[in-house]
Amino acid sequence: MVFTGVSSDVVLHIALSSRSSVTASAAAMACCRHATAGLPLSAGGVTRQLLSLAVGVFYETPLVPAAAYSCMKCMSNGKCLYETLAADGQTLGYFEDKVVPLVRHLVDYPALDILQTEDAAVKNRTVCAALRKWANTSIGKPSTLTAREVKALDDFIIKSSMPRQIRTPENSAIGNSFAGEAQWAAAHIYSSFFKSVPANDPAAEPTVTSESDEDNRSSSSDNNGDNVAERGQGGQPDVAVDDDSDERRVGGQRFVCVRLPGVVGEEHTLGVLARERWRVVQRFVSTLMAEAVIGIFLGCHKPAIESLAQALVDSEKTV
Amino acid sequence: MWPFLYLVGADLDADPDRARVIGELLLFELDSEMRMEDKWWENASAEQNAFAQRFAVGDRETYLR
Prior knowledge:
The complex is a heterodimer of chains A (319) and B (65). Chain A is mostly helical. In chain A, 44% of the residues lie in helices and 5% in strands. Chain B has one domain (2-64).
């Protein structure tokens, strides 16, 4: 009873002193959830319903005196309780001393401003955009590339053909010193699955797996839940919409990015399974190569994953 | 990540180069995540550190308090 009385008083104060009805309702709801957060889930829900009912009934009893507020423009009431007053019957001021600060740990956590390419394996922004666009392309359809993307992808793949230094298994190599190796690895993985060809090349023809392209496109967008491939700086598309524009031509030819046939064993399986396999590859390439991967190992046992990765590097057959 | 490893895992023994590059990519991502986590904690306030420290033990009594 005491708890309910105090809660009603607090919510009443919030309603009277909030800047608007929206903030009042949000603050009242936050207060209610804060007060019942320690209860079990079912009991918390029932308690919140009862509190809402009690507050609703309680609000019908008090009479708010007009002297509590004064006009913002003329300040006719100099002895009002609240400093800032109703305007247009909606906006109310608030007393900072009376407002109980609600600590919202999740909201108040610091946010890091991270560039998308800062901790991605691929550092080139154009290549990252092309990979993300490619990841959202329907299976069985080649992805049209801009001239800038063709050049960036060529440079990117050339790096994987360069001789590399042998990495020593010392932990001091953690961090930026790994970036070159990761970029080399990313280029190797990319060139194992994809290649850029002229649009009139026979390899650029849609594959047999495109028979239910519409279904695939819808399920792909459902699964991804994002459209980052089409997003550039400032939310603008990275690529032009017009397929025949000069921006898409390299030496008078349009280029497309295609999947290497047979890499995931699609010739021996059903079309739907082949599409699913390619979708897995595309998602892996986009997520682990073209994005700053933060939180992907959340909840996983990182030492075990590190052991797995190290075993893969050492080409061990068992972990 | 896991579906991809399941997909290519059967052929990794026959292709040590691919296994190696996948392993290197995973190591890089792990290192990146740990480095970002360190940067995140550098920006954390004293209250957030205290909050995390309080629940770091993970015992039942702490949550019931």
